[in-house]
Amino acid sequence: MPLTLWLSLAAICAMGAMSPGPSLALVLRHTLGGGRFVGVTAAIFHALGVGFYALLTVWGLGALIAGFPLLFQLITWCGAAYLAWLGIKALRAGQAGALQPTVMTTNRGQAAKEGVLVALGNPKLILFFVALLSQFVTPGMSALAKAIIVLTAMIIDGGWYVLVAVLLSHSRILPWLQQRAHWINRITGVLLIALALRVVAGPLV
Questions:
Q1: Structurally, how many domains does the chain consist of?
Q2: Membrane-spanning residues where (predicted)?
Q3: Would you report the helix, strand and coil content of the chain in percent, each value rounded to 5?
Q4: pLDDT tens digits, residue range 126-147?
């Protein structure tokens, strides 16, 4: 995979990971309720769930492109519509958004379990990955290239939420984020809508 193409993939994965939603609320809640290491545990296990979905998507996309191009195009457009809906939802979100989770005492076992379940319990991730990875997967793509795509999605997701957990273990960071949540939502919304338009325009490869 050329470096420029991988950088595009990494940027889109980062944008998806940073999008406010239930995953962010999960990491915030476990960080505030159990401390830094509990939050990091939630982040790592959430990334494992994301990696599982990314792996399933990559495996299926190549065969779908080769065997059913029209069906693949339809699914891609559905994925683009979902990205646009996420963007509109982010633009319309209130100031608090996902940055004010309900705080309760938690431990690393709970964080690990809920981290995986929040990822696997969100089938909308499949739509996100279909829209995202359709830009990078080709029928003849090697196993190494597919592994790079999956690992990129997983590592960026885990890295972002680990960073969130580490930063939020300092009590002065959360109020700063809460005050700027509306800007986070607006920027994310614009970027997601732009990504949806890019998906409709055609693949990058």
A1: 1
A2: 35-56, 63-85, 116-137, 144-163, 183-201
A3: 80, 0, 20
A4: 777 777 777 777 777 788 888 8
Residue with tokens 């829209």: 131
Task: Determine the Cα angle at 50 with ends 173 and 130, to 5°.
Answer: 115
Give the structural domain span for 65: 3-201
Distance from C-alpha of 90 to C-alpha of 162, rounded to nearest angstrom:
23
Burial state string for 162-189 with b = 16 or more CB within 10 A and e = fewer than 16: bebbbbbbeeeebeebeeebbebbebbb
Residue 89, token pair as written in the block:
């939802």
pTM of the model: 0.69
Q: Where do runs of H (alpha helix) occur along 19-134?
A: 22-34, 36-67, 69-92, 108-120, 124-133
Distance from first CA to last CA of the chain, Å, rounded?
A: 10
